[in-house]
Amino acid sequence: MVASIESSPPPGWDGEGLDGLLAAFLPGRLSEIVGPRSSGGGSLLLALLSRTSARGGLVALVDATDALDPLTAERAGLDLRALLWVRCGGRPGSAWSAVDLLARCPGFEIIALDLGAAAGTAPAAWGTRLQRAAEESGAAVIVRTPRHLLGGAAALVVSVRRVRTSWMGMDAPTRLGGLVSEARVLRSRADPRLATPERAWLLEWRT
Amino acid sequence: MTRIACLVVSGADERTQRLLLEMALAHSPSVEDGGPGVVYLDLRGLEKLFGSEEAIARGFLDAVAARGLVGRIGIAGSRAGSRFAARSGESITIIPPGGDARKLGPAPLALLDLDPHTAARFGRWGIRTLGELADLPSRGLAERLGDEGSRLQRLARGEDATPLRLWTPPPIFEESAECPWGVQTLDPLVDLAASLTEMLCERLSRHGLCADAFEWSCRLADRTAHAGRCAPAAPLSDPAAAAALVRASLAAHPPRAAVEDITLRACPVRVTTVQPRFDEPPRPSPRQLTATLARLSALVDARGVGSPTLLDTHRPDTHHILPFTLSPRGGEGRVRGSEVRGIGFALAMHRMRPPKSIEVALTAGTPAHLRAAGLNGRIVATAGPWRISGDWWTDSAYARDEWDVELADGTLCRLAHDSRGWRLEAIYD
Description:
The complex is a heterodimer.
Chain A (H helix, E strand, L loop, with lengths): L16 H6 L7 E5 L6 H14 L4 E5 L6 H6 L7 E5 L4 H12 L6 E5 L11 H12 L2 E6 L10 E13 L6 E14 L12 E6 L1
Helix pairs in contact in A: 4-5
Chain B lengths: L3 E6 L4 H11 L6 E3 L4 E5 L4 H4 L2 H14 L4 E6 L2 H8 L5 E3 L5 H5 L11 H10 L4 H5 L3 H8 L1 H10 L17 E10 L2 H21 L3 E11 L4 E6 L8 H14 L6 E11 L16 H14 L5 E6 L8 E4 L26 E9 L1 E5 L2 E7 L2 E16 L7 E10 L4 E7 L2 E8 L1
Helix pairs in contact in B: 8-9, 10-11, 11-12
């Protein structure tokens, strides 16, 4: 299950791997993970939730399309008892409202919104509203979306793209083995050095 | 002088025991729960109120018999004496004051509810009855068994100075309101329920209790009933939070007709306050969390808010949603330091719920093109089939082939194929 290719990063790639990237998602800030489907953005969000719950923190996932697979989440190390899962049935409007409600309830370390295929446009001024709520509650509010939605309100924008795919099987492939993602920070108000074009993180996700 | 009555009813379950205790309170203000089917009553000072000991016992037995139960009562100067008398065979057996030691002589030692170690020790000494224990030299017994030995010998002699451990019925936290005119709209009904909730919470606070659930029942104008239940994420007695919870729950499940009366009941629990440690992550306050969960339930659906739990099966996508609760604090499950680095490298999967029916074109038995609503394209890489089956011993057997495919636009999908056709199960992300 556990895989990392941090031991041999190519020149210019960040050697800190996942830890260095996850540390950029700060409490009390609004962050965004941007990337097309199958890019590894959902896995990055799951890694954030898993590590936080493993440390004993409570996390909330607002799932716009009811898409979370609890089995995968548990394999990723997510303590399901520490997860508040809010399923919005494909209604992005309800999903934004749910995040807003949760962001005003201090005590959750991460409040994640996975828009999945339901991503449209963010309601007007919603980014600023969420940013203020995050500041007050101290939670890290993270939005996973195929494209950048929150404008200037997001203190951190991480872009994810897939680099390669691996398959499993003896003679012919019988299962997807995993994929390798490249993550780049497009914006970081807390640490602008993270957003330099030559800095990237190479992450491997396994099925 | 101590006078204790013991009621013995065989085969009493927890509910019957509660009933017996409540009936006993009608015959004596001092009642002790002696375990399943055993109730002790203190008879001191009751002669002028209820008559002789025999009259009190007769009245109690009649009340028990009226509930369809058969019991026997023994009256003596000690618990052990009265219990032995109750088991002697007669419906009412009274040992006169001062006669306990003589009557208890042939009684078995098991009457004292000895622990196995002490019972075995007496067995090795050849002590089988209370009389034999009572006749042992007190000093020698105290030297070998300490205070416990002296206590047991006093009990064997019918000397029971320990007062009854009084049983009191748990308070009922219930509030009702009648609306003879019939409440036809939701707003006044939820306001009424909220005010009842606040009253209940004040009573809970006075007893130092919290509620882990609220239940309501309404009598409707069409002669039917409407009932519901809501549970906070953590036990609470905060009036505002509880009122918000009940308000949201009633709004989510409104009654079908005008309401003529409403009863609200709280399920009380005692909550011990634990001081959080400095190194523990923050947690929501029960009050705020309850209000937030109530609003989320009203916003989406109560069934859509909770914590997932996996079921013990290999069937894909099988889980339950449990109410989200603040589990007790504890560091035993927490991962520290470098161990966290090994967590979180699993490839996430976005499930389609329900799975989407799709059209798949095959080339040499392998998926080559996929067409579905919102997803269309040439398949550039495939892995499969991965055959899974299970539950063949039940009516809900499953068997299918799974394929992992990569579309030309880069989307990684999991497809499933069985007798019902092709379906898009999930998209990897």
